[in-house]
Amino acid sequence: MSSSTTAHKNSVLAAYHELVARGALTPDPAQVDAARELDRVLSDLVSHKPRRVFGFFEKPAKSVRGLYLHGEVGRGKTMLMDLFFSAVPLREKRRVHFHEFMDEVHAGIAAFRKSPRGKDDDADPVAAVVKPILKSGLRLLCLDEFHVHDIANAMLLDRLFSKLFAGGVTLVATSNVVPDGLYKDGLNRQLFLPFIALLKEKTVVADLPSQQDYRRLKFAGQQVYAFGSGPEVRIAMDKMWLRITGGEPGSPGVVESIGRQIPVPLMAMGAARFGFSDLCEKPLGTRDFVRIAHQFDSLVLDDVQQMDRTRSDAAKRFILLIDSLYDRGVKLAASFAVPLEQLGADDRTAFEFQRTLSRLTEMQSEEYLGKGLRDAAPAESSQ
């Protein structure tokens, strides 16, 4: 994910202090320690950069010891990952949500098994999936929200990451749980333990023990919905946006979704701002909304229109959007042209809209705004 914050002199800590100086962040010693660890990875990656010969790597890059950063929700892990990814001066880097990455791996394995080569008894589907990744020269893989609850993933991770690490890929991951807590009480967990040992060997495990849930503070006591179409509504949304981003105005970006790019008018500090037409009057579907919900912890949605029969398609997309945000626990601030009970004026979507209205009502409650993100992972293929 691109960041509105430009890393200063390729240093996570310098970029962090710049945000503090601008008032976008409150200084936190735990976040400073984490920024230093990220700078260590950054420095090692730069110093171990391999030479290219005729467009190819001269030899496999040495795998730099990465970082596994864990802590409770709202402590700043995503913000620090933003700064780190922005600061790394390499083209051969990728950032993706853990479940989306594993979804891609499973899809690649399934496709290989259907191929002529995949029908050989000695075929290795994991090696087949890893080969193009390494051939691309990938040096850094950043995985957000590393969390293993699926046996298909649990049984695959050791083989997958052994090959990635051997090929010179460095892992930086964020998680809500310590490595020893991954796949806790899972079926055949003893078979998963070698991966935990590998993870500890190839990354520095660092805690982010901040006492404050900054995400929750942004929404405490706030009216997150505004109604009407006058200038005061836009002013209210502008103020809410700056509160969520700590005063950062934001900049345009994109969300990658199944080989496509979804434009984001504004993004900053883990939040995104869209107009209703950007999401509900464009050819987007469930998968796109799930990607958006996994990429941002907060979303501002401007100018939600009344959805009568002339906006039937927009109504269906709006229902899917709210379902995706709600299932994930994303915080929503929005402006509506009409009161909530008047939003859905099309009897063809009336039943589905009742659930949406119920969710919208809950999403403005203190209880919902005080909770962390939920692990609403995309369905994964079986291994």
Describe the structure.
With 383 residues, the chain is an alpha/beta fold. The protein folds into two domains: 12-207, P-loop containing nucleotide triphosphate hydrolases (Rossmann fold); 214-369, Rossmann fold. 43% of the residues lie in helices and 17% in strands. Strand 5 (140-144), helix 6 (151-166) and strand 6 form a beta-alpha-beta unit. Helix 2 (29-47) runs parallel beside helix 3. The model is unreliable at 1-8 and 377-383 (pLDDT under 50).
Work out the helicity level: 40-55%
Radius of gyration: 22 Å
CATH superfamily of the largest domain: P-loop containing nucleotide triphosphate hydrolases
The outline comes out as globular
What gap, in angstroms, lies between the N and C termini?
A: 29 Å
Proportion of strand residues: 15-25%
| Largest sheet, spatial ordering of strands | 8-13-12-11-10-9
Q: How many structural domains?
A: 2
CATH class of the largest domain: Alpha Beta
The helix/strand series, from N terminus to C terminus, equals: HHEEEHEHHEHEHEHEHEEEHHEHEHH
What is the CATH topology descriptor of the largest domain? Rossmann fold
User: What's the CATH architecture of the largest domain?
Assistant: 3-Layer(aba) Sandwich
- Which stretches are poorly predicted, pLDDT < 50 over at least 5 residues? 1-8, 377-383
Mean pLDDT, rounded to whole units? Answer: 87
Q: How many E strands?
A: 13
SSE class: alpha/beta
- Main beta-sheet strand count, sense and barrel state: 6 strands, mixed
Instruction: Provide a count of the helices.
Output: 14
